[in-house]
Backbone:
């Protein structure tokens, strides 16, 4: 209830300080009902868990009568919020906020949209505070987003050149409502308690071009002991120095368009630095993160259709002949890449190590796993008058987690596991006038025969705008 009062007070404050107009203000309400069923049978006779994996960790205890894991959950979800967009000579407001609640939740939660900030225009700069999406990302995945929450400024040098700097960013995984209305809690009934830790991040990005563009970006995150994979032995930290772990990531991306055909791509890298120990004990740069990733997408779009194939491939862990881990592969930030419901929300399995709202995470599991993998999505959308249709297919193929590895990006078959995860979905909606939307969705999830993991999902939703 406290969150609702905060939301109401903020709405009153913004409407007083920034006079609203009908064109700049939008208010919405959203309701969704979802039924999810997840089945996890016994492993196929003669098939054991691949080395290094803990496939059944986190799932409920098996039912001796049915001899399979069974979870069926009907989730009711409601949200309401507002958006306000206004730009004047000296200031700019772009605010989007949602208050959401689920039927099994103890209290409502507040989510900001991708862009929710207040800013002023001084000396040719846009100086703002709040949440803003990174302008230097060119990810080919519809579902991926990343941005800062803090103090930023932007400079437009010309029609084709823009720079964005986040002086201070309180990083917490760039949480978005559309990425979290389903969660592992429906399987394990666990409460979500984000961990505390160092989250200070800084970023710099440059974008050149308009219809076709090239972008460069770099991010620096103070990590410390945030996340179970980055915690140090406290006695060692106290004796040999403070825990100053940090992660630097960089991206080179671009979008190239020819008539209705377009190409999107990014080259990414990550480097971890461990300053816990003194130079006499251990060399700097020992935080085991060092890797690269590539993300490529091709698409075709006109006024009715949009079809896009997106692919993500990162490097594997670097391991010695004795299987000793020398460094983790590429570690990402921001939201999950995918738009699929089972892979990105119910299972929350990431294609690679990720720094989420819980810090650095690496897990070799099917539930909340973060492991190097090949990930692909095919999305087809159709819009005609008041009708919208969206078809999605997703494929997840993890890298082998045991044995010698040079830690490089590879497309060789022997460097990938024998099992996979896949999902296909459909979403259809009807827009009545301009203020009401009604829709249905369905999704089917399956895996290789050796795992026998599968799921079905049906849902209905409605949105109304005032």
Residues:
């Amino acid at each position: 209830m406290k969150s609702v009062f905060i939301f109401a007070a903020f709405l009153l404050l913004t409407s007083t300080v920034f006079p609203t107009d009908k064109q700049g203000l939008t208010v919405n309400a959203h309701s969704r009902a979802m039924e999810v069923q997840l089945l996890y049978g016994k492993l196929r006779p003669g098939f054991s868990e691949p080395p290094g994996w803990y496939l059944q960790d986190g799932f409920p205890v098996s039912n001796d009568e049915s001899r399979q894991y069974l979870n069926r959950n009907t989730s009711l979800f409601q949200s309401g919020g507002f958006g306000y967009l206004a730009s004047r000579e000296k200031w700019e407001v772009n605010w989007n906020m949602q208050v959401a609640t689920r039927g099994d939740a103890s209290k409502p939660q507040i989510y900001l949209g991708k862009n929710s900030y207040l800013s002023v225009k001084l000396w040719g700069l846009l100086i703002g505070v709040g949440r803003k999406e990174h302008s230097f990302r060119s990810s080919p995945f519809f579902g991926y987003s990343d941005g800062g929450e803090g103090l930023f400024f932007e400079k437009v040098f010309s029609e084709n050149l823009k720079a964005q700097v986040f002086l201070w960013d309180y990083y917490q995984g760039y949480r978005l409502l559309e990425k979290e209305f389903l969660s592992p809690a429906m399987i394990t009934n666990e409460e979500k308690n984000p961990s505390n830790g160092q989250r200070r991040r800084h970023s710099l990005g440059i974008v050149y071009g308009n219809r076709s563009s090239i972008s460069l970006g770099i991010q620096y995150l103070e990590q410390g002991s945030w996340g179970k994979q980055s915690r140090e032995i406290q006695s060692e930290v106290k004796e040999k120095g403070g825990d100053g772990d940090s992660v630097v990531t960089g991206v080179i991306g671009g979008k190239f368009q020819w008539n209705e055909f377009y190409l999107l791509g990014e080259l990414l890298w990550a480097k971890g630095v461990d300053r816990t120990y003194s130079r006499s004990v251990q060399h700097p740069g020992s935080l085991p993160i060092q890797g690269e990733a590539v993300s490529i997408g091709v698409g075709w779009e006109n006024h009715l259709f949009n079809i896009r194939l997106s692919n993500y491939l990162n490097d594997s862990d670097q391991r010695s002949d004795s299987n000793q881990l020398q460094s983790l592969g590429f570690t990402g930030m921001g939201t999950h890449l995918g738009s699929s419901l089972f892979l990105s929300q119910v299972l929350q399995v990431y294609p690679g190590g990720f720094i989420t709202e819980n810090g650095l995470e690496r897990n070799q599991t099917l539930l909340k796993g973060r492991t190097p993998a090949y990930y692909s999505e095919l999305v087809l959308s159709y819009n005609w008058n008041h009708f919208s249709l969206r078809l999605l297919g997703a494929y997840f193929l993890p890298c082998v987690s045991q044995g010698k590895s040079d830690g490089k990006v590879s497309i060789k078959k022997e460097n990938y596991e024998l099992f996979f995860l896949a999902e296909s979905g459909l979403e259809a909606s009807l827009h009545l006038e301009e203020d009401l939307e009604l829709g249905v969705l369905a999704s089917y999830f399956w895996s290789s025969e050796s795992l026998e993991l599968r799921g079905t999902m049906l849902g209905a939703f409605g949105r109304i705008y005032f």
